[in-house]
Amino acid sequence: MDRQRVDVVRHFSRTVTQRVGALDDSFLARDRPLAQSRLLWEIGLAGAEVAVLRTRLDLDAGYLSRLLRALEGAGLVTVGSADGDGRVRTARLTEAGRAEWHLLDRRSDELAWSMLAPLSDGQRDRLIAAMSEVQRLLMASLVTIDTCPPGDARARTCLRAYLGELNERFETGFDLDIDDEPDLVPPAGLFLVATLNTEAVGCGALRFSAGEPAEIKRLWVSRSVRGLGVGRRLLGELERRAAAAGADTVRLDTNGSLTEAIQLYRSAGYHEIPRYNTNPYAHHWFAKRVAGLS
Amino acid sequence: MDRQRVDVVRHFSRTVTQRVGALDDSFLARDRPLAQSRLLWEIGLAGAEVAVLRTRLDLDAGYLSRLLRALEGAGLVTVGSADGDGRVRTARLTEAGRAEWHLLDRRSDELAWSMLAPLSDGQRDRLIAAMSEVQRLLMASLVTIDTCPPGDARARTCLRAYLGELNERFETGFDLDIDDEPDLVPPAGLFLVATLNTEAVGCGALRFSAGEPAEIKRLWVSRSVRGLGVGRRLLGELERRAAAAGADTVRLDTNGSLTEAIQLYRSAGYHEIPRYNTNPYAHHWFAKRVAGLS
DNA sequence: CATGATTGCTGACTTTAGTCAGGTATCGCC
DNA sequence: GGCGATACCTGACTAAAGTCAGCAATCATG
Fold this sequence. Notes:
The structure is a homodimer of 294-residue chains. Helices cover 47% and strands 19% of the residues of chain A. Chain A has 294 residues and is α+β, with helices and mostly antiparallel strands. Chain A folds into two domains: 3-115, Orthogonal Bundle (Arc Repressor Mutant, subunit A), CATH 1.10.10; 144-289, Aminopeptidase, CATH 3.40.630.30. In chain A, the strands form two sheets. Chain A has a seven-stranded mixed β-sheet, sandwiched between helices. Chain A has a three-stranded antiparallel β-sheet with strand order 1-3-2. In chain A, strand 5 (189-196) and strand 6 form a beta hairpin. In chain A, helix 2 (34-43) crosses helix 4 (61-73). Chain A is globular, with a radius of gyration of 25 Å. The mean pLDDT of chain A is 89. The first copy, chain A, binds a DNA duplex (30 and 30 nucleotides) through residues 33-35, 50-51, 54, 59-66, 68-69, 79, 85-89. Chains A, B: It comes from Micromonospora endophytica.
């Protein structure tokens, strides 16, 4: 732990959070409870299903129901059944609710502007750039990596996206059913997913074969978090796990069109090796020594 | 108002504030109410006067008193009379309270570190730099500028600091009583202070003389906010007010040792003019046309 | 030493937030 | 058409947060 850096983060949290955060709540503060305002805000102009609101705001079902009744009572919201499923209910803003939403929207704008207004144009640019940077990097640091069975919903989401992307990028197209996948579970292998806020944003797998190097497969990162180092983290984690499982070396194959991946492998210390399999889609083969990695 | 920039700020507030803010409160969450933890944290190892706590946390006097009783009951805090004023009371942490504070401090460290840990070293550097930048610029945007009578406490703080600094920087020293100051109040002149969070961090004055250009005096910015554009804002505001009062031109004199100030004047469009007064401390004289400034 | 201001404390309240245990309507499915 | 699961609602509760008015001690000042 690095004292100096931690102090900057703590100072940042303290000042920025207190100040911006206080303002950020205050833009919702009207003559009604904060929870009601937040809910109204979250329903939005397009309306929203009650279940979605519940997860987004992380509220107790009963509490949320009561809040909706209160907004209904104030004439700001109507809750009606959705088309398909009669159990699912959808909250929509009334005309008055819509007006209220627009008012909050305007106040939010004003608040944001109040932070920019006193600055010179150059300072505004710098502030905007720094805010984007902080946000991107905090997003990166919220990505967690852990194992997951390859049959899991998150894994399947990743694999579907991965295969779709290969199919789109390979000149020859690509055709493989993800259910053909041999079981990537211990002891034959393992499967990692990278998760951001419950959303799966990346994956990677290892396959072990007795007497041979461990093989890295299915390394993929969602476009939404590309450039945040998630691929490198996945790769590193796969290497560590391969080493922990007793492998001296890991190897992998890749298609020539996946240039970022190839660059990643090279910069992570992989060296090109001769063809070791008959994969018709592979153009390059790489390996790296991982023995002793912790 | 600039749509694109405002959107970045709003997005920043939303994501960063929600996430960092939520964490920031969570580090205080123990088995006691949040308000108590916050109070204990704010009292700190050095102790704090009750009135100071009240303003810092912005709490109702009665509520604060009750919170202190609760912490006292838990054996974490003692509240005793201060030395001088028998009405003023000072809260101090007991041994147990101190231990609790250290625990919170450690948790805050861990939380800060949890944002850095998943990142690469280069990313950490970039995040730290961006956080500092956001904080500095938000601080800059919190500085407000308004008129204030020169006899006011804030004005006198500024003038004292200003004169102290001149005395320190001029080769010949500087000697002037701030009470010698002719009244810088309308219609003869005016006095501006820049304020950050109730702290005076800069000042500037105008003096009007019939038939002559308005004169800028006492432009000063506290070291704590130097480099944030406060001087330039003060100068601009003085020019606008001079123009509003009917002046065509403003002028000023300055000592050769005040190099940043001279640079500021030049870059703000001032041009050097011949000596127009007999100020023994002045080496340079500047003027700028302000007619038509809004 | 009387007076008004300041500082903090106490009691009596209200509102908000949040939890938990049922209950009812609906759906998918055999 | 019966069954378990799903999606939401209602009633009954608790704890925390916050407000307000009045009170007691202390201070500065004439």
